[in-house]
Amino acid sequence: MNKQELEKIKQKALEDHIPIIMDDTLEVMEEYLREEKPERILEIGTAVGYSAICFTEFLTENGVIDTIERETKRVKEARENIKKAEVEEKINIYEGDAVEILPTIHEKYDVVFIDAAKGKYPFFLKEALRMVKPNGIIFADNILYKGYVMSDYNKHKQRTAVRNLREYIKEVSENPNLETEILEVGDGLAVSKIK
Ligand code: SAH
Ligand code: MG
Prior knowledge:
The chain has about 200 residues and is of the alpha/beta class.
């Protein structure tokens, strides 16, 4: 991977207000990825490819990342960025709505990273559980959503998102096959290890 290009990609994404993964969240994920040495990663929410490019460093030699993005303009920019970072052979982008694309994927993954529409997290979890390998990990970014999720204030506009994020937390916490931690890094990161 070309690190200088990666830094440029990050700066441009920040200037354009693309909600890329926060530095502290990325650091935590990298620690897990270093240990996991994934062969296949599934990412839901590519944006401009920043996190996917970062993750390539932790793949096994022939490892790949499948990532899904529904906004055409972002897909185009992600493809350009992936090329600039020289990781084209490691990242495959699916263009379209993850709600439609996920049920068509019949692969297994060592790591699933959920980072898209918050109102769809319970659905993404169901699909992630179907595709994740034993001993794999499911990450969910923005799980605490600016603190709304853990507060009792219920009247904001983002009510549906908050309800679904709470449901996600409840499901991963109660699932006996998972060992889950909710970390207060960045905008909140749920880490669920498959037992
Ligand atoms: N993982 C990226 C950031 C993703 S931001 C990074 O850290 O670099 C979330 C992205 O998910 C946005 O680009 C948005 O367009 C996309 N998204 C939201 N809901 C989606 C859905 N249902 N299907 C596909 N993409 C979706
Ligand atoms: Mg995010």
